[in-house]
Design a protein that fits this description.
With 388 residues, the protein is mainly alpha-helical. The chain folds into 2 domains: 96 residues, no CATH class; 240 residues, no CATH class. The protein is 69% helix and 0% strand.
Amino acid sequence: MALVPVWIWVIFVFALGCSIGSFLNVVIWRLPRGMSLAHPPSSCPGCKERIKFYDNIPLVSWLVLGGKCRCCKSPISPRYIIIEFITGLVHVGVFAAYFVWGTRSALVGMEQFANGGWLIFLVHITLISALIAASAIDLELWIIPISICWFVTAVGIAGAATAGFVIDPEYIRANGLLPFAKGGVGAAAIGAGIGMIISNLLLMTGVIKPSYAQYNENETDLTMPQADDARYNHRVEVLREIVFLLPILVCGAGLYWAAKNNEAVRDLWGKLDSFAVFNGFAGALWGYFCGAGIVWATRILGTLGFGKEAMGLGDVHLMGAAGTIIGPGMAVVAFFIAPFVGLMWALYQLIFKKTRQIPYGPFLSLAICAVMIFADDISEYITHMMGY
């Protein structure tokens, strides 16, 4: 790998990114509308003619066709080429930032790419691709499909659990390349995971009730319920969410306490801690709960305080998914950076569109990307501010 010139890698990564962007266009249109991502094949919405493979080449086909269908000359939205180009550009930017410019010092150099850095890159661009799709959907429809979040969560957990097979686990932990948890933190993460299984079983069996049930049952409704929707007593709805969260909090705290104070559990945890797969798995799980937790706590406190839905549950799942990849600390940092990213857009919405509601997913996504790419500088700054 290291013998291949960097410029060839740049071209390859850009082409890969544009191809992924082409698939993201399918996701953005079909997923929130409940359509299959595989069937039927792509076709013109005007004449219904199936699009030939040579008219579906990222960037090139749209330009060659002049943004129109070959058969009926119906216009093709410029969104398609924009998403393809942005995705390709962002993929190249991350590749250059990591392996050429060294924003993540532990990855700089193509030797590091060959020695396991490729796995970090693949996991990170998976997150970025999902953020692009989620942001585009959120901007248009004010929703974030949970399936995108679960996909990223699965990739994050799998990546963190298996990374130790291709990169020295201590190198991963020391440089924060992926989440990594040991000791009591790992126990708390596993306990919270057990609690989440219990909560979902209670939800499925009807022992506890879901919040905003009327909205959740209407799967074809693509509009976000308004914060002042008269169908709901918003404070009562988030109290249901608190009940859902109780097993997660109790099991997490309980297993943390047992790992610290019970000799048998402490001995068992000492053995588990010797396996990098377990450390990565627990670390990603802890990242999920910290990322989701900071947003969910804000949602609950804001809704209880103002009597209106403060943040969407899609934002909760999005930040949780990101936490499995960027880790718990950076997920919290991203959450506090996001308001500054969205401030100007919020002012524009308030002045010109007379609304105080904004889709928050795109700003969370920008903040997540920023802390992922510049994690070294952010960590150094925080350490300096704390006087270490």
